[in-house]
Amino acid sequence: PPGRLSLYDAACQIAQETAERIQERNRYQRNGESCAKLNVVIRSSLQTLREKIEQLKDLLLRAVSTRQITQLEGDRRQSLVDDLLTRQKQLQASYQHQGTEPDVTRSSLMAGGVKRGVSNPWLLEEPEDTRGLGFDDLRQQQRRIIEEQDAGLDALSSIISRQKQMGQEIGNELDEQN
């Protein structure tokens, strides 16, 4: 099967082309032209997009379950797949509206397409400090970070309490002076 990068890029490209075809079909309908051929192409594109999203889901599940990627990276990729799935549902709804979609929906569909020059989010490398760590190691690292944050918050809390106390003492002194 194709790699996840090319699969993700292909899915994004299909989503973009489908949005453009739906927009074209709607323009034809407003002009009273027949758009049966476009409807067939759109239906086929939506089916292909669904299949690619399913393949991405399978690849992601396999990568997470065999620990090829960290849970954090798995969550990031899951978010990308969820975005694609949402886009596919928007396209499906837009296709079924048969030209009655508002301009806002159409422009939002077009805005989410493949942008030239923007780096592909699937190409981001896993951070050096988590590379090669298993789930248990990541959990320990996360607990350590949370403990450090808690200690920092405790210190901040004591500083704020001390400042509050000083403010109250200054206020009391001013009252006495007045």
From TrEMBL:
The keyword Cytoplasm does not apply. InterPro entries: T_SNARE_dom. Residues 39-66 form a coiled coil. Residues 143-178 form the T-SNARE coiled-coil homology domain. Keywords: Coiled coil. Gene3D superfamilies: 1.20.5.110. The keyword Coiled coil applies. This is STX8 protein. It comes from Psilopogon haemacephalus. The lineage of its organism: Eukaryota, Metazoa, Chordata, Craniata, Vertebrata.
